Amino acid sequence: EPEVTQTPSHQVTQMGQEVILRCVPISNHLYFYWYRQILGQKVEFLVSFYNNEISEKSEIFDDQFSVERPDGSNFTLKIRSTKLEDSAMYFCASRGDGQETQYFGPGTRLLVL
Amino acid sequence: GNSVTQMEGPVTLSEEAFLTINCTYTATGYPSLFWYVQYPGEGLQLLLKATKADDKGSNKGFEATYRKETTSFHLEKGSVQVSDSAVYFCALSEGAGGTSYGKLTFGQGTILTVHP
């Protein structure tokens, strides 16, 4: 069964450093999403991406965040200058055209020191 | 804006007990409703869904009915197993089209532990 994959599974970085989180969505899906879950809190929507552009973003998704689909298979989330409060589990998800269900990857746990 | 509220956890049950996890929602339109499950060390998996009022979603013995009049989507299972131990998330989506591209709004999650 096709699945969404994410790399790395864990990332530790120093405050102020840039990180790139990578996702490979299900191959025929057209809608892509990033969510995050700070420890002990809700899963929160960050951004959705369709037709090679951001379609919707939350207040959390400020100028330090960016997303890209560089090669037609990967979908990346970049955090330009990490802060302590960016420490969280980051989930990628994808959805097919006309479908309701989003399929999630296993997540990347990011720790900012 | 949209919101989802789940019952406080954690929930601890003995095997074969009856499970209910309450979920209520607030939405401006006619959302689709979902239950996702997260097993230890894994990502979010869709458990079941319902896309319109009075629909019942079911999977692996779990059920939930979309109740528009009470804005609820409570998760139930008649006899839980140790393997059901996980975190359960209720979520809604306004669906694709219009100004929404189907983003999910989640509840806070309920930790379920089932003992033998």
Q: Can you describe this structure in just a few lines?
A:
Chain A is an all-beta fold. Chain A is built from no helices and 11 strands.
> Can you write the helix and strand succession of chain B as a string?
EEEEEEEEEEEE
- Number of helical segments of chain B? 0
Content of β-strand of chain B: over 45%
Mean pLDDT of chain B: 91
Quaternary form = heterodimer
Q: Mean pLDDT across all residues of chain A, rounded?
A: 93
The level of helicity of chain A is: under 10%
- The stretches of 5 or more residues of chain B where confidence is low (pLDDT under 50) are none
- Name the helicity range of chain B: under 10%
Got a strand count of chain B? 12
Strand content of chain A: over 45%
Shape of chain B: globular
Can you put this structure into words, describing what you see?
Chain A is mainly beta and 113 residues long. Chain A has no helices and 11 strands. Chain A has strands at residues 5-7, 10-13, 19-24, 31-37, 43-50, 53-57, 65-68, 75-79, 88-95, 103-104, 108-112. In chain A, strands 2, 4, 5, 6, 9, 10 and 11 form a 7-stranded mixed beta sheet that branches. The model of chain A has no long low-confidence stretch (mean pLDDT 93). In chain B, strands 2, 5, 6, 10, 11 and 12 form a 6-stranded mixed beta sheet that branches. The termini of chain B are far apart. Chain B is mainly β. The model of chain B has no long low-confidence stretch (mean pLDDT 91). The A-B interface holds A 4, 6, 31, 33, 35, 41-45, 48, 50, 55-56, 91, 93, 95, 98, 100-107 and B 32, 34, 36, 42-46, 49, 51, 89, 91, 93, 95-96, 99-109.
